[in-house]
Q: What sequence folds into this?
């Protein structure tokens, strides 16, 4: 496994675990850190031995945003030329299911990184917010789009315009997170959930992720059409044959591609 300096990456069973590891800066997402996260996620993505990815931070902070100190003096032209933040678009293209296990601050880019994951499991101390407006900017890692799609215009608009932080209970009620768990058991819970996903056929899980994500990008008619194509493609896999045979024979499925 590659050595990283700003994250930890390890494999536990069939789950790839990425831990943001910049405690002095509350896991502020520097450009270098983004590249490490992407490299680790891509390595897990192409590894047939990894069926799901968990991304997490510390109990104090998932990530307190993009690195303000790094970008404070940057010019618009410089950012445009460097295609600043495009690393996060690449992360969103990772096809392996990814869970964000979020405790503490998930602010600005931290909230946006959590939303790039396929779903969020939140600790009871999690705090979500898009406070960029207080810095004289707006969300830049997809927050204005993904937050609005996740929780609707009214709440997203309020959060983006005021910088208000949302606690875990409200985030669950608003549909931003899948589930809230005690902070002590966050990682255990997220890893167990990831292990369930990793026990499925990986190509089929990737296909399921593609289908759900299409709901964000297309009309209902287009989305349903894609879903139909994708389920037909599932029937081309040995794992569909095995899954349905196992049901009929009243036994656990032994998927080949897991
Ligand atoms: N960037 C850099 N350093 C940070 C960040 C950050 N986002 N957040 C915290 N830190 C650092 C602090 O500077 C401090 O370092 P030091 O000890 O050297 O002074 C250390 O982490 C600990 O932080 P605090 O002492 O502030 O800890 P507190 O517990 O008092 O407060 C908070 C925690 C409330 C999370 C506070 O740190 C805070 O408000 N952080 C900033 C939150 C924020 O505004 N995030 C949004 C950032 S902007 C963004 O994410 C997207 C921008 C889009 C730009 C588009 C460009 C293309």
A:
């Amino acid at each position: 496994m590659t050595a990283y300096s700003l994250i930890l990456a390890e494999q536990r069973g069939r789950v790839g675990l990425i831990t943001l590891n910049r405690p002095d800066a509350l896991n502020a997402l520097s450009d270098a850190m983004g590249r490490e996260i992407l490299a680790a996620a891509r390595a897990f993505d192409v590894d047939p031995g990894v069926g799901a990815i968990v991304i997490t931070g510390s109990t104090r902070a998932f990530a307190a945003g993009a690195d303000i100190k790094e970008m404070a003096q940057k010019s618009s032209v410089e950012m445009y030329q460097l295609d600043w933040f495009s690393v996060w678009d690449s992360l969103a293209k990772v096809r392996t299911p990814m869970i964000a296990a979020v405790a503490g601050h998930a602010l600005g880019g931290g909230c946006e990184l959590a939303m790039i994951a396929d779903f969020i499991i939140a600790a009871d101390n999690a705090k979500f917010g898009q406070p960029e407006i207080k810095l004289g900017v707006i969300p830049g890692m997809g927050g204005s789009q993904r937050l609005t799609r996740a929780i609707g215009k009214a709440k997203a608009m309020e959060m983006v315009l005021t910088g208000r932080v949302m606690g875990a209970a409200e985030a669950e009620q608003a549909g931003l997170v899948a589930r809230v768990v005690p902070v002590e058991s966050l990682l255990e819970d997220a890893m167990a959930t990831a292990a369930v996903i990793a026990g499925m056929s990986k190509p089929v899980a990737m296909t399921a992720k593609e289908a759900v994500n299409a709901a964000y990008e297309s009309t209902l008619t287009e989305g349903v059409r894609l879903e139909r194509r994708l389920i037909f493609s599932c029937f081309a896999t040995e794992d569909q044959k095995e899954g349905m045979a196992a049901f009929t024979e009243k036994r656990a499925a032994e998927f080949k591609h897991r």
Summary: The first strand starts at residue 7 and ends at 12.
